[in-house]
Amino acid sequence: MKVAAVLIPLPVDEPFDYVVPDDMALARGDLVTVPLGPRQMTGVVSEVREIPATNRRLKAIVARLDLPALPAATLDFLEWAARWTLSPPGEMAALSLKALRHAPPKPPLRLHRVAGKAPVRLTPARAAVLQALDEGPTVASAAELGRAAGVSAGVVKGLVDEGVITARPAETGNPLQAPDPHHARVELNPDQAEAAGQIGQAALSGEFVAFLLDGVTGSGKTEAYLEAVARLLEGYPQAQALILLPEIALTQAVIARITARFGAAPAEWHSGLTGPRRRQVWDAVVSGHCRIVVGARSALFLPFPNLRLIVVDEEHDGSYKQEDGLIYQGRDLAVARARFESAAVVLASATPSLETLGNARQGRYRELRLTARHGTAVLPDITLLDLRADPPEPQTWLSPPLRAAMAETLARGEQTLLFLNRRGYAPVVLCRACGHRMTAPDTDSWLVEHRYTGRLVCHLTGFSMARPDTCPSCGAKDSLVPVGPGVERVEEEVRSLFPEARTTIFSSDTTPDGRSARDLVEAMERGEIDILVATQAAAKGHNFPNLTLVGVVDADLGLRGGDLRAAERTFQLLMQATGRAGRAERPGRALLQTWTPEHPVLQALAAGDRDSFLATESEERRLAALPPFGRLAALILSGDKADAVEKAAQLLAGAIPNAERLEVYGPADAPLALVRGRRRKRLLVRADRDVDIQAFLRAWLARVKLPSSVRLSIDVDPYSFL
Ligand SMILES: Nc1ncnc2c1ncn2[C@@H]1O[C@H](COP(=O)(O)OP(=O)(O)OP(=O)(O)O)[C@@H](O)[C@H]1O
Ligand SMILES: [Zn+2]
């Protein structure tokens, strides 16, 4: 008899076996409906095998779905990704199938005349209807057509009943038009042309090649990889390309550039799409019709049959790391996916991660460099403002030199970006009477005040509450005061300093979706905003031609974090933020406010000395054998009952297998020991680079049976140390 192993979205390590009915042809990759208890689920066939008759009581597959099978390389990739991240393979595979929950959008109906069919009785009213139908624009309803003809809808309905007029689905054409590589070709400079040529050629070769596209901000990395896509499509029109971006606002900007470049909009893929649209894109991808997809990390799981090029733009960006549900590093999975597809992959950044630089230096990635800004644009001058010498006035955040620079910029009719990576009004709310800090009731994190909404918000869990009038701890009235600045508070200061300036905030609170982000970016591009107060939403990738001043409100902010990548992340973020200035004809400058101007990260930024910063940082990591010179994995246990979590942690700690060149730290309370009412404990594994940390983890976990009240999440290569 034939048995199929089917991957279904359940938290188990193996596929489930089902009997294949005799009349069903089934192969790896096919999508099927299978019974599970009283339910039916959609799954992917991982394997079909012949077995001797058995008395195992196996259920049978209900149906094979009338959909294209997952391409072989897609499925290979998904199964590998599950092993790599120690995730249930069925849940990993389900990431590829999420869009199937929806039906594609139905095309709207349009009224047409039925050829060769005349009305039995041609009254003047009926003649008017037919004339309106022949002459007017197409319409969907009888009422609409009646209005156009100046008669009642009943007349139209009569004609429909008689079969003279009929409703048919509109010809909407292909919702995804084919890109034209010749549409608006850009003249590249020699470095850009070299990069585009190498990438394009690799993509056409059908072999796996990984590139680091390392170019200063504004050097034309986007221009270069778009040209590589063009060359690929020229040489192989059926090829598919995937461009990953870390931020929805940036996605919108790149979509606009692709549309201008190729004369057709690419498909977008991110959480903001409607269900039917997702399904439409999924169908177009799996059938191969869709050539260019631009999206968030989840686009990695789309079933491309012909994927030849993957671009990971701003590859250093932390948001490629998925931290909820299945935990994975999107950038790393992109490289793996390219390997399974025999495709080219481009990691692009002005501030590459140490991981990627390490891979390039060791020859695993080919390095392409763009060393200058395009045309006459030059990199901005970066100056550190020592707040010890020039402090802002009490309860304000902008120092006199920064205020003066803003006034000059405004007087010249140019734009300023004030960068502060903190949403809301104030990061902490404190009671003046007793010193109590407002925290979320069931989470170890401070509540952030948001003035626009008048609420106190936990940025970790989304919990929010109205701002109370009295201190919940001591009961004092009107004693709660905001401490420190967020973007809303800086905006307030800017408005009082420059009431005539057009000032706007750019953060995920003010631009929660693609459309609002695009509107804001376009307003900034058109020069309709003088001063933009922004979180990291604006630090990445944007081109604002008239922006000549970037002020960093608190350059010390990220340096206090103290986790593995704090220095690296701060350097990258500030370099990106300052890189927004002076990208067109007018030169730009960046002023960084700091209390610690001697800090090596800030010194390197001011000197524009990326390479020496990276060398120092890299040497420290090497000495400590930390990533990228070693591997890390975090195990986080959580549960409602503190003692159950504690016991599970002890169980794990007691079962650590012997291993060389590997250490386990903990268990310890996670830095956020309480989240949404759940207690959390953490163990951290460090291993040398050549140790198979996944194999170690599997061996370890096989030795313990954790109580079902405790959840274990495994984070291979953790970025957040919360
Ligand atoms: N060859 C070229 N011809 C015309 N304009 C160019 C060319 N190369 C770059 N530009 C322009 O220079 C600006 C910066 O280019 P682009 O956005 O591609 O740089 P980037 O390296 O991707 O920037 P970032 O790292 O800051 O995201 C854009 O306005 C772009 O259109
Ligand atoms: Zn109090």
Automatic annotation (TrEMBL):
Keyword annotations for this protein, in alphabetical order, are: ATP-binding, DNA replication, DNA-binding, Helicase, Hydrolase, Isomerase, Metal-binding, Nucleotide-binding, Primosome, Zinc
This enzyme catalyses: ATP + H2O = ADP + phosphate + H(+); Couples ATP hydrolysis with the unwinding of duplex DNA by translocating in the 3'-5' direction
Q: Where is the Helicase C-terminal domain?
A: 466-624
| Any one GO cellular component localisation term in the record | primosome complex
Give, as one word, the top-level EC class: isomerase
User: Which segments constitute the Helicase ATP-binding domain?
Assistant: 202-370
Q: Which residues bind Zn(2+) 1?
A: C431, C434, C471, C474
Q: Which domain of life is it from?
A: Bacteria
SUPFAM superfamilies cross-referenced by the UniProt entry:
P-loop containing nucleoside triphosphate hydrolases
Residues making up the signal peptide according to the UniProt record = none
What interactions and quaternary structure are annotated?
Component of the replication restart primosome.
Q: Could you say which protein family the record assigns here?
A: Belongs to the helicase family. PriA subfamily.
The entry's protein name is: Replication restart protein PriA
